[in-house]
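If you are new to this repository, start here. Below is one unmodified record pulled from the training split, so you can see the exact layout before writing a loader.
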Amino acid sequence: MQIIHSNGMIRWAVARAAVAVAGMFAGMSLVYASALQVSPVRLQFEGAQRAQAIQVRNQGSDSLNAQVRVMRWTQENGVDKLEPAEDVVASPAIVQVAPGKQQMVRVIRIHSAPVSQELSYRVLVDELPGKASAERSVGLKVLLRYSIPVFVTPQASNSAPAVTDLTKVQAQLVAGSNGKSVLQVKNSGPSYVRISNLRTLRSDGVQKSLGGAGLFGYVLAGQQMSWPVDVAYPLSSDLSLEARFNDDRQSQPLPLDRSGR
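And here is the target side for that same chain:
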């Protein structure tokens, strides 16, 4: 089981094989307490900035152990790819947090010189199994993973534009499975594009949400991403796609190329 939330958190269901088999026959109960909390949900280094911090909080009643890793984040053939980073590290890499407490973890660039183009990473914070909670757990044990986007930009930005420029963004729908569509979005610009609140808009004003009201996904600078969407292919002529981009308050139409229909 995998549930991805708009703040980057991923809940992983982890169970021993024996328990899983028993649960299929005996009505296994779900044991889960949302102990691990991590903030902020996104980091951005600008210019020569070298270090930032995340806070790992324990909202539970037992001591919490977590592992913190930094992964280089790229996108290939329309999918995310993570590899261990060598130029950005987390310190400490293993944390133990008492109930009701929090601990700071520093995310550090090894070389703080400004970059010539935007770089992207993800900080993975994984809850580790604890002995006390394991002894009390009956059934399925759910652990948490936070996946926090990190960007290193060439220079500090004086102010964010009121509306994201989409002139370097191109999108198209291609045929998927079961008569549905796959949305392909290409970002030819120098900075990432974050897409949220994706929806269809009919000519009569009727809207339909695609993927919930939160984060839909990122398209990194110079990359392309693909997602299956619950839209019939080909797209009806009276439908368009809208979304919020980056931190914009208002939605914009997605620049959709219909010539390939």
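Two things worth knowing about this chain: Residues 31 and 141 are 6 Å apart (CA to CA). Residues 2-153 form a domain with the Immunoglobulin-like fold (CATH 2.60.40.10).
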